Amino acid sequence: MDALQQGKIRNNVYHVWDGEEVLRFLRKEGEYKDAVRPDLILLDLNMPRMDGRTVLKEIRSDDQIKAIPVVVLTTSNQERDIHESYGLAANNYIIKPVDLVQFFEVIQSVQEFWVNVVKLPKK
């Protein structure tokens, strides 16, 4: 989260800790009833309580949130993870750089593409 803020992201960034919390946030349940739905989801595959693959599957099966673009941003470079993520309808799969400067560059590229280049449907 700190890295995203240091990377000078121009949009609001919301952070949740585990996969179950991701779904509560997106579905506006409980403490998130007033949350703003994101225009883009950066999803890690390796989250506690519910992994990113399961979260992605749940997102894509929920009519209220399935149109939100999902970028998998993870440390895994395993081919099976890449294939499975795209098979679950991830929009992109990005391997997190270990170097902080490279990470900022990747995040800025993601932001540039999804905020300034791609035309998304209105909410």
UniProtKB/TrEMBL annotation:
Keyword Phosphoprotein part of the UniProt annotation: yes
Keyword Plastid: no
Residues in Response regulatory domain copies: 1-111
SUPFAM superfamilies documented for this protein: CheY-like
Pfam family name, one: Response_reg
Residues bearing the modification 4-aspartylphosphate: D44
Biological process (GO), any one: phosphorelay signal transduction system
Keyword annotations from UniProtKB, A to Z: Phosphoprotein
Name of the protein in question: Response regulator receiver protein
Record organism: Rhodopirellula baltica SWK14
